[in-house]
Amino acid sequence: xxxxxxxxxxxxxxxxxxxxxxxxxxxxxxxxxxxxxxxxxxxxxxxxxxxxxxxxxxxxxxxxxxxxxxxxxxxxxxxxxxxxxxxxxxxxxxxxxxxxxxxxxxxxxxxxxxxxxxxxxxxxxxxxxxxxxxxxxxxxxxx
Length: 143
Prior knowledge:
The strands form 2 sheets. A 3-stranded mixed sheet has the order 1-2-3. The protein contains 5 helices and 5 strands. By secondary structure, the chain is an alpha+beta fold.
């Protein structure tokens, strides 16, 4: 199974944030959209739909743990590593993406196609896909 198979079953909407926005704004966006990660885009709108990083609930917690209440005023760009964007493509297998997530200790990956953001895949998406495939295999064997 490939990443593209999972993306076709998901809501295509991806919530993004710019590097110059604050942790507080990021937290409100995550809460409003009931998600745990945002795709970070560069401050300068560039050609295409380019991701430079991911900002997660972990980053919110880290900002507050290290800076107290003032952490909500930090810029998202201060807390992400733009040099190490880990991403995948729609043609990558779920096994490969799961391996990337495990190696890098992350739970969300932006999906990049033709230098543009095509979606986000999460560890939960992968787990659900594997569970559904296993259920279908059991049902097929029982029939």
